[in-house]
Amino acid sequence: MLQIGKVTEQLDISADTLRYYEKINLLPRVYRNTAGVRQYSDKDLSRLGFIKRAQKMGFSLAEISALLNFRENPQAARPQVRSLAFQKLTDIELHLEELGRLRDELRLLTNRCGASPDGCPILESLDN
């Protein structure tokens, strides 16, 4: 069992975030000792690790809540999990395309800026 301070250090999560996860039921009510201090079990730490990995993949807290529910019966939930993951993958691919276009535009503008004797093509582009 770890107290909140150790969990924040170990998982690089703020105490406020841990309390918020408990408040919105992303994390079940955490055991408290007789002094009222939260004590996190290995199961809690596993759940928090799952949440952090899902966030890194771009899932929202609502989606993570659904994934956590699916985690209880993964075989039955497989189609829903696959659908959710496929939608997230589609979103990421669209975002990557957009980032690629932005990269190309910035590359062009920075090249034009170096060759432009007057004005600033970057600022002019942002104005338009």
From TrEMBL:
Gene3D superfamilies: 1.10.1660.10. It holds the Pfam family MerR. The keyword DNA-binding applies. Keywords: DNA-binding, Transcription, Transcription regulation. SMART domains: HTH_MERR (SM00422). Residues 1-70 form the HTH merR-type domain. GO terms for molecular function: DNA binding; DNA-binding transcription factor activity. The keyword Transmembrane does not apply. PANTHER family: HEAVY METAL-DEPENDENT TRANSCRIPTIONAL REGULATOR HI_0293-RELATED, REDOX-CYCLING DRUG-SENSING TRANSCRIPTIONAL ACTIVATOR SOXR. This is HTH merR-type domain-containing protein.
